[in-house]
Specification:
Blueprint: E1 10-13, E2 20-21, H1 24-30, E3 40-45, E4 51-55, H2 107-114, H3 120-123
Antiparallel strand pairs: 1-2, 1-3, 3-4
């Protein structure tokens, strides 16, 4: 699992060291050399676990899918975001930790809408 891209759909074979990585940052963390650039890349689909090659000089929109299982592997990357939050039970089981932003209806507003005495002088 890649800690840099949470929804990585393929692994990439580095042409320099012939090892599989989920992203270029994973390669940089584990190797001392720079990632070599190439025009033909080798991918391994994480859905069907089959490898395939793509020529990057003639890359088209139809090349964004795995040729074996049609998994769309070119998607917007989701990167982990640091946040502070409270972990608790499933909200369907225990909803006490949710904040209710609804506003209670005011008693004065209810009285003004349904009380004829407030508008007696205007009724004539």
């Amino acid at each position: 699992m890649c800690k840099h891209i949470l929804n990585a759909q393929v692994s990439i074979r580095a042409p320099c060291c012939k090892q599989w990585y989920d992203c270029a940052e994973c390669h940089a963390e584990s190797q001392t050399h720079a990632l070599a650039r190439t025009t033909e890349m080798s991918f391994m689909c994480k859905k069907c676990k089959k490898a395939f090659r793509k020529d990057m000089t003639a890359y088209e929109e139809s090349d964004e899918y795995c040729p074996h299982c049609d998994n769309h592997y070119v998607i917007d990357a989701k990167t982990p975001q640091a946040m502070i939050k409270v972990e608790g039970e499933d909200v369907r089981v225990d909803a006490r930790m949710l904040k209710d932003d609804r506003v209670k209806a005011s008693k004065a507003l209810d009285d003004a809408l349904f009380d004829d005495d407030a508008f007696a002088d205007r009724l004539g």
